[in-house]
Write a structure and sequence with these properties.
The complex is a heterodimer of chains A (313) and B (292). Chain A is α+β, with helices and mostly antiparallel strands. Chain A is built from 15 helices and seven strands. Classes of the chains: A alpha+beta (313), B alpha/beta (292).
């Protein structure tokens, strides 16, 4: 017998959420969604959650189980139950709960709409289809697999502290169009995506990759947009400046010049940005933590320089 | 046990106490760490923003250096570890790509074959042999010290590249703390991001992330946080005074590098381990250890 510890919430009856426990036998092979249905059908009909296809296609049944977002229909309950024979179910994170495990997806969809999730083609519609080579298709194949379940959005570390971040799902969807050979707005797209709240606010935590139930792997897609943004010359922001400074440092010496990177990332004419570096700079200076003023290259740095040259970098 | 030490850039720069304490910990444990002086920066997942192929070629070159020495690589930075493992995965999952990278390396006399394993310092210790060696050589058990691990994202995610058994609920670092005689503190933020990668782009969000983690550790009763990543250390320690101002909360807690904690139990003094170079005072640790 397993314990299902479920976060219940019904603002019409009680202002604060609370946990309620249900006991249920987990039959071999059943999914977590099967268990949720059993609880609803046999123990408490008021238990509320979203579900539809039961086949990991529609993306409706994403919830948090034992602290991490997943698709309830895609995972077997016996693989989730913890050492105490318990499964704790909570609504997805980073969105407001409406009732029990149902959350308000409005900000999620607003952000998806913000990245213009539609093709803006170069020419007028042709008579038939717009063909792509296999290579061109593969560039957008992974992001096309996103089912908008919100699992990545739920566990995103940046969104936990900054609701303005577009988030992994919208950015993965953006890559679907940034990388599309038929789209004409690549520069405009990466320019907008480089604004605050966009690609450079991703903190590289990898949570989205871990929670994504499909091959969409949002962080990998965000990195692809970053590469396009740098290629397209969208450099007037701290994220791009940081990447270029980092890159140039390794190119020059094989390693990082930590004294230059903060200054170059802020930009030489960004007075308030440069001033914001002062407190940490002074603190580190007085503790002897400032990196060596004379920066040393790695041994055999010429081979590193050769590799940069060979790759036209 | 002999390893090729991939120091990473930050251990030679802003957190030189990490390099100092790694040397001491290795000495105390009887490990031989040979510094890879011709290895380049791992790229920290930033060089690959500009050119993924270049980032992989540079890291494959570093692997080749260790292969020539017949050694496995040890890292002392979660970011280096995760970034190197990503390159390793790229090379091993695609033979054509591996050949392309090796063709780039050829002129410099390097080739990657895939013989060298890449392990974080914590992963070396959290083995049966590492634990046995640790227990055997402890001179000053850290009894009474409540230690909260902060893993650093890159060493856990993506999980397919992680050496920790269950990256969603790892116990490797806590097992090490227990072996040192300390009391491990489990708290949800231990596997979260410190925010360092965006400190130049979105400082308030970055500091909120590290501040929330520190508060979580304190709320769960920790005396000290120990991390395997110098970038996390910069976030959690060097930015701590600014975090306190931003969050208007007292979340003051010392933050140690994992090798400092290990070397402390091996009998080295705090000053030998550069613990006086931290922004947040570590004296509280001495006081706790003195009373037990």
């Amino acid at each position: 017998m397993a314990t299902f510890r479920i976060k219940r919430f019904n603002p019409e009856k009680q202002p604060e959420p609370y946990f309620e426990e249900f006991q249920l036998d987990i039959q071999p092979g059943v999914t977590l969604l099967d268990c949720m249905n059993q609880i609803k059908w046999t123990l408490d009909g008021s238990f509320t959650y979203r579900m539809s296809c039961r086949s990991a296609i529609c993306g409706s049944c994403a919830v948090k189980a034992n602290g991490h977002a997943l698709l309830a229909c895609q995972r077997q309950a016996e693989h989730i139950v913890d050492n105490d024979e318990t499964i704790t179910l909570e609504p997805l994170g980073n969105m407001k709960p409406i009732k029990d495990l149902v959350v308000d997806f409005t900000p999620f969809w607003d952000k998806v709409n913000k990245i213009k999730p539609y093709l803006e083609p170069k020419e007028a519609p042709p008579e038939k289809e717009r063909p792509q080579s296999q290579e061109e298709f593969l560039r957008i194949d992974d992001s096309s697999t996103c089912i908008m379940c919100g699992a990545c959005y739920s566990d995103c570390n940046t969104l936990e502290v900054d609701e303005n971040f577009l988030g992994p799902a919208a950015l993965a969807k953006a890559q679907r169009f940034v990388g599309d050979s038929r789209d004409s707005q690549t520069f405009e797209r990466v320019k907008e995506l480089s604004e605050p709240g966009g690609i450079w606010d991703c903190t590289h935590c990898g949570e989205c990759v871990e929670r994504c139930p499909k091959p969409a792997r949002p962080f990998d897609r965000i990195k692809e947009i970053m590469t396009v943004a740098l290629e397209q010359g969208v450099h007037n922001n701290n994220g791009a400046r940081h990447a270029l400074s980092f890159f140039n440092s390794v190119k020059r010496s094989g390693n990082l010049n930590e004294n230059r990177i903060p200054v170059e990332s802020m930009g030489f004419f960004n007075i308030s940005g440069l001033l914001s570096l002062l407190p940490i700079g002074l603190r580190m200076f007085f503790k002897g933590k400032v990196p060596p003023i004379i920066h040393h290259s790695i041994d055999e740095v010429d081979d590193v320089k050769r590799i940069f040259k060979e790759l036209d970098q | 046990m002999k390893f090729a030490l991939f120091t990473g850039c930050v251990a030679k720069g802003a957190t030189r106490e990490l390099m100092l304490s790694t040397t001491k910990a290795a000495e105390g444990l009887g490990f031989e760490f040979i510094e890879m002086k011709s290895a380049s920066c791992c790229g920290a997942g930033v060089v690959s923003e500009k050119s993924p192929l270049l980032a992989d070629a540079l890291n494959a070159r570093s692997f080749s250096i260790a292969e020539k020495q017949g050694l496995d690589i040890v890292t002392i930075c979660s970011t280096c570890q995760g970034t190197l493992k990503k390159t390793e995965a790229h090379l091993n999952e695609d033979a054509e790509y591996k050949k392309k990278v090796n063709d780039i390396l050829k002129e410099g006399g390097h080739q990657y074959s895939g013989k060298t394993r890449i392990k974080h310092f914590a992963n070396i210790l959290a083995t049966e042999e590492g634990m046995a060696r640790l227990k055997e050589r402890i001179k000053r058990p850290l009894t009474g010290l409540k230690v909260a691990a902060f893993y650093g994202c890159y060493v856990l995610r993506p999980s397919e590249n992680s050496d920790f058994e269950n990256p969603d609920n790892p116990t490797g670092m806590e097992d090490i703390f227990a072996a040192l005689g300390a009391t491990p503190v489990y708290y949800p933020s231990r596997i979260k991001c410190c925010g360092f990668p965006i400190v130049m782009m979105n400082k308030p969000a970055s500091l909120d992330m590290s501040g929330n983690a520190l508060l979580d550790a304190i709320d769960h009763g920790a005396d000290v946080v120990a991390t395997g990543c110098p970038l996390c250390h910069l976030s959690l320690d060097s930015y701590q005074p600014e975090i306190e101002i931003l969050q208007k909360k007292n979340n003051s807690i010392p933050v140690l590098h994992l090798p400092q904690l290990v070397a402390l139990a091996l009998g080295y003094s705090p000053s030998e381990l550069g613990m006086d170079r931290h922004i947040v005072s570590t004296l509280k640790i001495n006081e706790i250890l003195a009373t037990t």
